[in-house]
Amino acid sequence: MRKRESPRDRAYGLAVAIVAASIPVFVFGILLFLIEYSLPAIKFNGLGFFTGTSWNLGDFNAVKFITKNGVEGLPGASFGILIFLAGTLASSTIALLIAIPTSIAVALFTVEDAPRRVREPLIALVDLLAGVPSVVYGLWGLVVLVPLMERTVAPDLASTLGFIPFFGGATGAGYGLLTSGLVLALMVTPIVSSTVRESFAKTPPDVKEAALALGCTKWEMERKVVLPYSKTTIAGASLLGLGRAFGETMAVLMVGGGAGAVAYLPSNVYSPISTMATVIVSLLDSAVTDPTKLALYSLAEVALVLFLITLSANMLARLFVHGGIAKALVSGGREN
Amino acid sequence: MVEVLTTRTESAQKAVMHLQADSQAESKVALKGLSVWYGMSKVVDDVSIDFRRNRVTAVMGPSGCGKTTLLKTLNRMIDLVPDARVEGEAYMDGQNILDPQFDVTILRRHVGMVFQKPNPFPMSIYDNVAFGPRIHGMKKKGELDRVVEESLVGAGLYGEVKDKLGKPASSLSGGQQQRMCIARAIAIKPEVLLLDEPTSALDPSGSLKVEQLITTLKENYTLVLVTHNMQQAARISDNTAFLYEGRLVEYGETGQMFENPKEELTEKYITGKFG
Amino acid sequence: MNSEKGLGARKAKDWTMRGVALALTLVILIPLFDIIYVVAVNSAPALSLTILTKTTADGGLINAIAGSVFLVCFSSLLAILLGVFSGVYLAEFGGRFASVVRLLADVLTGVPSIVVGYFGFIVFVLDFGWGFSALAAALALTIIMLPYVTRTTEFALRKVPSDMKEGSFALGATRSTTVNRISLRYAAPGILTGVLIAVSISLGETAPLIYTADFSNYLPSGALTHSPVGYLTYVTWAYISEPFASAHQQAFVASLILMLLVLSIGLCARFMVARWWKS
């Protein structure tokens, strides 16, 4: 017997399929727009875009535009993002170096140590941390972390760990790489931690028991059984966190010290930074004034590179954690 | 002369009389008036049993009779159960292992356990068997190699796996995995081996091999076997304890109990007239 | 028997790790409480009716509050319309196209919000000629909310017991009737949870709005295009770097309102999830 859909059902199916097509439309819309819009910049900037350290709109008083690879620009214009790329990678790396062990510790405590009555409230609090708006993180970083960093943490670190590369030298005004890394770590930890926690909670209890029955201490059991069972999830969740850190704008804009975009590479962990995400905000106002629009095209190229970097982190993560970031954020760590 | 004197034990005094059961073998672990609660419900009720050295003691009874709980108190895995409460004593070589002061890590070093379902660690066969010795401080490659081999031989598995020790344990069949779990348990040279329905998840040929292994293991270990399979208890155990609703109904030599049970409940159970 | 070589060191390590896990958990929670404390203490002196009666130019926040509510409602409406039916498609009519949509929904959640903001600025504000406007801003927020609403709707619909659907089919109901009358109704609390999470995310967004909504010192005009809109996160970001104490207080009060809203939405969602899983 063949199942026939009624015409009404077919119409309904078609209608919801069309609505669902809005998602591909948005994704490809953004991607194709970025590619098309940044094309002149890609031609003009070439590979120097990644190695250049100056973002210079050129001479506004020039009478004649120059042409490079068929694209018009102001004389002296050069668009290089090495500094912002370095700021993005360095702050995200610091964030992840702090967030991964912390997330694992929080997840272990929640699953293995916390008394049952404390568990649910603890999960709720960590979820709440994930929900704090990024400007509020920025505000807190600005009024609490920045002064703390300037007065105590940075000078102390420099005097005790100054022998380690990037830890010595001028300690700055509290804004910068390390402060950004700390705020990012705080923002990323709840996301990584809830994904990892769900995985820890699914460790086969009989295998955990087998380890304990052989006389393992709890930590030995965790290290030999719980962690190995979740190692792909830990890798995937870390990549999800990395994607978030790459794309974070407001908090880093507020504590990175790079308002208006910094013009030199970070020399140590206290240096002010701009990231790919923050310069889009910082440089858009000036870019609009470029009569050749090349600055706008170049910002589109920044956005495109940022899109592609976060995309690869997320796609890689998707290989490890099923359901990807949507599930990690939406389920908020509820076991079900 | 062997006396089997047990009925429902009401007090610890009667436990003394159990000592006379199977008197050729000395006592290894003696439970005295053991009771266990999960929250408000009492799942083990005033049980006294004397487990004998170099014997297989089967603990049988219908599901929910408290036999697995009883087993879990012997290596204090019961500590992991939230709101479980234990009363009574369990003497192993004269020391009360239920004393909170008694270190569970050390206890579990001396009391091995094999679980219902094979539960290999996600690592190689070698690393699985070497797991316990490593935890307890054995580091030298030569020593570890020897212990792994001995344990696998002891578990009757060596011939089947000697060429693939580096393969993941999950590549073994269910029966092989269970024997590997036994090898893993005996690798730390325990004195007592607890077996919690070790064949319930295996096919008949896998079960047979594990049963044969259990009978050979008693040369070196004191074995406690929890089973709901009466034929299995009859085949491979020396002594049998019959538990019903948390209470010890009867305890004695296996042959005698199956041929001539003292208690009506026991008789009903082994003749399958349990209602 | 009660001793073993090396056991002391193993125990010590175990206790150390227990301590580290507890300590790091506290280290993560302290900032949460400190954020709430700092925001509350710094906004306390400024808490008065002025916030609700005056605009940001006169020391109040009413234009930002109204603007945020306007933008969130507008974008939620769009996101719910698109997201719920996209979710229906994914859960009920799946096919090869569905797995593409699912993948792209995941891609969309990963797109940095500033990229969406840049896209919105060039395309909606400049190319479409809408200017800084509620429409441009709400569409940017919709893009961000859409994948969350879609995926939670899909998850929720998949939890509808199949016998419930079969019961409906057995009565001769068509697929569309079953989805509309039975499945969506059963899954409603789950879908609402996803909507709440999306609302909470969009409420806290800044980056996609800076160059689409711009900012306005006036109440939303109601015009959809060519009319900038004020919103709370902007006040926090911009006013904290003003040199006046009163501007700082406005920044803190804006944050306090944001935190209270995010907190209550989060609690609401959690409560609903708990009830829904139970039933």
Summing up helix and strand content along with how strands pair, one would put the structural category of chain A as mainly alpha
Shape of chain B: globular
Shape of chain A: globular
Q: How many DSSP helices of chain A?
A: 14
- In terms of DSSP E residues, the strand content of chain B is 15-25%
Arithmetic mean pLDDT of chain B: 87
Q: What name is given to the CATH topology of the largest domain in chain A?
A: MetI-like fold
What order do the SSEs of chain A take from the amino end to the carboxyl end, as H and E? HHHEEEEHHHHHHHHHHH
Give, in order, the helices and strands of chain B: HEEEEHEEHEHHHHEHEHEEHH
CATH domain class name of the domain at 13-117 and 187-269 in chain B: Alpha Beta
Helix content of chain B: 25-40%
Q: What summary fits the major beta sheet of chain B?
A: 6 strands, mixed
CATH architectural label of the domain at 13-117 and 187-269 in chain B: 3-Layer(aba) Sandwich
Q: Total strand count of chain A, please?
A: 4
Task: Name the poorly predicted regions of chain B.
Answer: 1-20
Question: Largest beta sheet of chain A, briefly?
Answer: 2 strands, antiparallel
First and last CA, distance of chain B: 35 Å
Q: Can you walk through the features of this model?
A:
- The complex is a heterotrimer of chains A (336), B (275) and C (279).
- Chain A folds into 2 domains: 7-78, no CATH class; 82-330, MetI-like fold, CATH 1.10.3720.10.
- Chain A contains 14 helices and 4 strands.
- In chain A, the strands form 2 sheets. Chain A has a two-stranded antiparallel sheet. In chain A, strands 2-3 form a two-stranded antiparallel ribbon.
- Chain A is mainly α.
- In chain A, helix 2 (22-45) packs across helix 13 (294-320) and helix 4 crosses helix 10.
- The model of chain A is unreliable at 330-336 (pLDDT under 50).
- Chain B has a domain at 13-117 and 187-269: P-loop containing nucleotide triphosphate hydrolases (Rossmann fold).
- Chain B has helices at residues 13-18, 67-74, 104-110, 125-135, 141-154, 158-161, 174-186, 204-217, 230-236, 254-259, 264-270, and strands spanning 27-38, 41-47, 50-52, 56-60, 84-92, 95-96, 111-114, 192-196, 222-227, 239-244, 247-253.
- In chain B, a hairpin with a 2-residue loop joins strand 5 (84-92) and strand 6.
- In chain B, helix 4 (125-135) crosses helix 5, helix 5 (141-154) crosses helix 7 (174-186) and helix 7 (174-186) packs parallel to helix 8 (204-217).
- Chain B is globular.
- The two termini of chain B are 35 Å apart.
- With 279 residues, chain C is mainly alpha-helical.
- Chain C folds into 2 domains: 7-44; 47-278, MetI-like fold (Orthogonal Bundle).
- In chain C, 76% of the residues lie in helices and 0% in strands.
- Chain C has helices at 7-43, 50-53, 62-92, 96-110, 113-127, 134-158, 162-170, 175-204, 207-210, 232-239, 245-278.
- The longest helix of chain C is centred in the first third of the chain and has 37 residues, at 7-43.
- The radius of gyration of chain C is 24 Å and the shape is globular.
- The mean pLDDT of chain C is 91.
- The interface between A and C is large, with 97 and 96 residues.
